[in-house]
Design goal:
mainly alpha, MetI-like fold, 10 helices, elongated, BP-dependent_transpt_permease, cell membrane
């Protein structure tokens, strides 16, 4: 039977040996991590597209029309001789920029209206929420289509039309969060210390709603990209030969059976972007929930 000294001496050594021999814990690869990596790759390809491709987006490549995949045209050419890959990368860049601007503007406007309504209360709250309900009462896509048709088909008109119908959700979210935060202890403490008015709202109540707004915005970017593509698909985006993904898919539908790559690859780009942002939004929500935000 070993002595206590031997047991004490061998204990740490055994523990160290056991720890050294144990396999290191591997980090779990989550869909959100894959989505983040995919987004980085897509953004880099979109931004570097003009440098990576020798072809222009508005000038035919000089090769035969409807050419299939080749070393010079990885995704083939369309019915006008444009390089499909070049135009898909350009369309991805346009969609990302437009979606970020629309989502950011809608979130900012909705946050401002909802914060004022929730913080001030009374007739101001009732008036702003009735206006918000009025916008929510109509189908957002139909209203956006009407606005774009009135302004004239273009990317700018599509962005304005979507932004006008996209902000009410953020206003509702901000109002609810602001009203909930108004009775919290830290807001009461700030009020007792002499902080009032806009300073109290901006410094102590608005920050409480930011995590929810960020998660909602990250999820909404995919929806905005889909809506922009839908408007362009029905002819309410920029006119041809603009490299908008929805317009490219629409123009290539007549070649779907013979030259399927013309409408399919722009549609795949739209679906991939939407899927990536959906997973990123879920991941951001999980992170903020784990941190108690």
């Amino acid at each position: 039977m070993p002595s206590s000294a031997e047991t004490d001496a061998s204990g740490p050594a055994a523990t160290t040996s056991s720890s050294a021999g144990a396999p290191r814990a591997r980090r779990k690869v989550t869909p959100e991590t894959v989505a983040l990596a995919a987004l980085v790759i897509v953004v880099l390809l979109a931004l570097l597209g003009p440098l990576l491709s020798p072809y222009a987006t508005d000038v035919p490549s000089g090769t035969p029309y409807l050419a299939p995949f080749s070393g010079g045209h990885w995704l083939g050419t369309d019915n006008l001789g444009f390089d499909v890959l070049t135009r898909v990368l350009a369309g991805t860049r346009i969609s990302l920029f437009a979606a970020l601007v629309v989502t950011g503007g809608s979130a900012l406007l909705g946050l401002l209206i909802g914060a004022v309504a929730g913080f001030v209360g009374g007739w101001v709250d009732s008036l702003l929420m009735r206006i918000t309900d009025l916008f929510l009462a109509f189908p957002a896509t139909i209203v956006a289509m009407a606005i774009v048709a009135a302004l004239g088909p273009s990317l700018r008109s599509s962005m304005i039309g979507i932004a006008i119908v996209w902000w009410p959700l953020y206003a509702r979210i901000a109002r609810g969060e602001i009203r909930r935060a108004a009775g919290s202890l830290h807001v009461e403490a700030a009020r007792m210390s002499g902080t009032h008015g806009a300073r109290l709202m901006l410094r102590h109540t608005v920050p409480t709603v930011m995590p929810t707004v960020l998660v909602t915005a990250s999820l909404d970017i995919g929806g905005v990209i889909m809506t922009l593509a839908a408007l362009a698909f029905i002819g309410l985006g920029s006119p041809a030969p603009s490299p908008e993904l929805g317009l490219m898919s629409s123009a290539g539908m007549q070649y779907l059976l013979d030259s399927w790559w013309i409408p399919v690859f722009p549609a795949v780009a739209v679906g991939l972007l939407s899927l990536i942002f959906n997973y990123l939004g879920d991941g951001l929500r999980s992170v903020l929930r784990a941190r108690g935000a």
